[in-house]
Write a sequence for this structure.
């Protein structure tokens, strides 16, 4: 089955540690996105990539980094510079001929 | 700037009809999307409007007026499982570009 997979579903980290969230898709989509969701805040764009080896900052990129070495994969690293990293992180992808974005199941990150 | 407004919460009765409104002010417009999101889960696509008018899909319909920067999602014959957040999103630019989301409307369906 085609889809977009995020792992892990729940992640706990100590303050000051970097952590990488995985996102893999087998939909052959060119574009991939990372959003953050906080209660009452809706989805806010962190980074996006429209093609391999290229990515753009979104509205809240500070404290995050990404890479796009393969079409299928778009990992997000939450660095120690991110002041409030505890949140629900959603990865999405979209293709040239699809109008909507498809979402992964999300990773809930808790930093203690 | 980009601004998408929708009510924070709504309550409706099982079997009834509910309309969730969305107004938007964005730098461009290349389509409006509605997603459903149950708590702790991924958003799932409901509807897409790029031209003015009504799009119907089963119990769900979505309307768009580009001149007014306005859309609504209409849910008919409400069921308890429709209790969820409903997200309005706009694609501002053409091509494979990100969606800008509103804060979502939490709908509670009561018996």
């Amino acid at each position: 089955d085609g889809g977009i997979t995020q792992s892990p579903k729940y992640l706990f980290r100590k303050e000051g540690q970097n952590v990488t969230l995985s996102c893999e898709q087998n939909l052959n989509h060119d574009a991939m996105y990372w959003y953050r969701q906080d209660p009452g805040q809706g989805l806010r764009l962190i980074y996006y990539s429209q093609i391999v080896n290229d990515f753009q900052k979104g509205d809240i990129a500070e404290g995050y980094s990404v890479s796009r070495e393969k079409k299928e994969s778009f990992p997000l690293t939450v660095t120690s510079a991110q002041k409030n990293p505890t949140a629900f992180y959603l990865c999405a992808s979209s293709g040239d001929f699809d109008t909507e974005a498809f979402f992964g199941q999300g990773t809930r990150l808790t930093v203690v | 700037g980009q601004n998408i407004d929708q009510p924070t919460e709504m309550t409706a009765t099982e079997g009834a009809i509910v309309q969730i409104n969305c107004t938007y002010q964005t730098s461009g417009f290349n389509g409006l999307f509605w997603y459903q999101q149950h708590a702790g889960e991924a958003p799932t696509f409901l509807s897409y409007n790029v031209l003015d008018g009504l799009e119907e899909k089963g119990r769900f319909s979505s309307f768009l007026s580009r001149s007014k920067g306005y859309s609504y999602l209409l849910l008919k014959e409400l069921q308890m499982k429709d209790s969820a957040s409903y997200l309005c999103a706009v694609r501002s630019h053409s091509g494979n570009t990100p969606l800008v989301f509103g804060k979502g409307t939490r709908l509670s369906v009561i018996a």
About this structure: Residues 35 and 44 of chain A are 5 Å apart (CA to CA). The two ends of chain A are 36 Å apart (CA to CA). The interface with chain B takes residues 30-31, 33, 35, 40-45, 48, 50, 58, 88, 90, 94-96, 99-106, 108 of chain A (CB under 8 Å).
